Amino acid sequence: MRIWLNEQPKEVAAGTTLAQLRAAVQPEADVLICNGYPVQPEQPLADGDRVVFIQRGRLPDAEELEALLVARHTPGVHQKLKRAAVGIAGLGGLGSPVAIALARSGIGRLVLVDFDVVEPSNLNRQQYFMDQLGLPKTVALRETLGRINPYVEVECHVLRLTAERVPEIFGEVDVLVEAFDDPAAKAMLTETFLSRCPGRPLVAASGVAGHGPANRITTRRTLQQLYLIGDGRSAAAPGQGLMAPRVGVAAHHQANAVLRLLLGQNPEQDQACST
Amino acid sequence: MLNLMVNGKSFQSSAPLSVAELLLHLQCDAARVAVEHNGIILQGEHFATTPLADGDRLEIVQFVGGG
Fold first, then answer.
1. Which percentage of chain A shows pLDDT scores above 90?
2. Poorest-confidence range of A71-75, A152-156, A189-193, B12-16?
3. pLDDT for residue A274 is more than 60
4. What's the helix, strand, coil split of chain A in %, to 5?
5. Domain A2-58 is found in CATH 3.40.50.620
6. Which of A195, A240, A242, A246 is the best substitution to test chain B (most B C-beta atoms within 10 A)?
7. What is the C-alpha to C-alpha distance for residues A253 and A235, in angstroms, rounded to an integer?
8. Boundaries of CATH 3.10.20.30 in chain A?
9. Closest Cβ opposite residue B64 in set A188, A222, A233
10. What confidence tens digit (pLDDT) does each residue in B13-39 have?
């Protein structure tokens, strides 16, 4: 009969138990999962079972992790994402969840820019931890991404981005994510990247504050190469703070727009890109 | 008479306008916008020196703070 072991097909004799399979292929495994649930080793296997062996504390190597990602992603998708480079300007409430979503998706290379350090007030929405307070956000996020998928190449720049540095730092990325907080910085990056790095899309955000309906956050193509996420209006202001759920919705709109662009799909709707 | 398309809507002006003057009229903060003028991204430093001509198309994106 055929089962799936660690996402790979494998032929085994009828009546084989999990314990026998473990002894044959990975005797040091200490957690046995069958069809999504931890099970006892004596359990006999059935045709079509999906088995995952885990050895606590041991990290899968690059090839094993790749096989797991390939199995989880639609064929063809993983290869395209693995070849891609994505820039993220700003690693706050937008940029940090975007980076995590893209690393989990298996993007090959991330170029991260931020000048800031992790402060206690960031923890209300940004993907950092108490034990990272005081670290540069680039350093903290690189560490977190390494715990998720150590085989993503991460390039970090600790600096306040100026127009002059944009082509040098983001000149090679396939898609750039604008994830700044300051509206003038958002405008500067948009006009600089779209004019100095022509032909490459920018995925920006505007209007993500507060706790208004999440359904007002949309993805719209507003300039030829600009996809704008947000409700367009909700600025961060006294009485309307930035909160994890709504900023997170916007961040994941941005990450999804990046995936769709890399796969040749229109981020706005169900059709191929027109460019 | 100047007939413009601004963010897909027609806009008319009886007086000559630069991009900077149009932004002022629309109450847009020039430091917080990105402007596409007839399909080409316009640098902020050129807003004041770029005159608008009849039939020009403008896309103006205004950013608000937060991220």
1. 88
2. A71-75
3. no
4. 35, 20, 40
5. no
6. A195
7. 18
8. 2-58
9. A233
10. 999 999 999 999 999 999 999 999 999
CATH topology of domain A77-262: Rossmann fold (3.40.50)
Collapsed DSSP state (helix, strand, coil) of residue A7: coil
Asked if residue A163 lies in contact with residue A188, where contact means CB atoms within 8 angstroms, the answer is yes
For residues A249 and B60, the answer to whether their CB atoms sit within 8 Å is: no
Chain A nearest C-alpha distance from B63 (Å): 5
**Domains parsed from chain B with CATH numbers:** 2-62 (3.10.20.30)
| Contact call for residues A94 and A251 (beta carbons, < 8 A) | yes
Residue A252 has pLDDT above 80, yes or no: yes
List strand residue ranges (DSSP E) for A90-182, in order: 109-113, 153-157, 175-178
ipTM above 0.90, yes or no: yes
Query: Which residues on chain A place their C-beta less than 8 Å from a C-beta of chain B?
Result: 90, 92-95, 179-184, 186-188, 190-191, 194-195, 204-209, 222-224, 226, 228, 230, 232-237, 242, 247
Distances (CA, A) of B23 to A109, A176, B28, B29, B30: 38, 27, 5, 7, 7
> Is there a contact between A80 and A263 (Cβ–Cβ < 8 Å)?
yes
Which helix H or strand E contains A4, and what residues bound it? Answer: strand A2-5
How are beta strands A109-113 and A153-157 bridged, if at all? parallel
Q: How far apart (Å, rounded) are the C-alpha atoms in residues A3 and A42?
A: 16
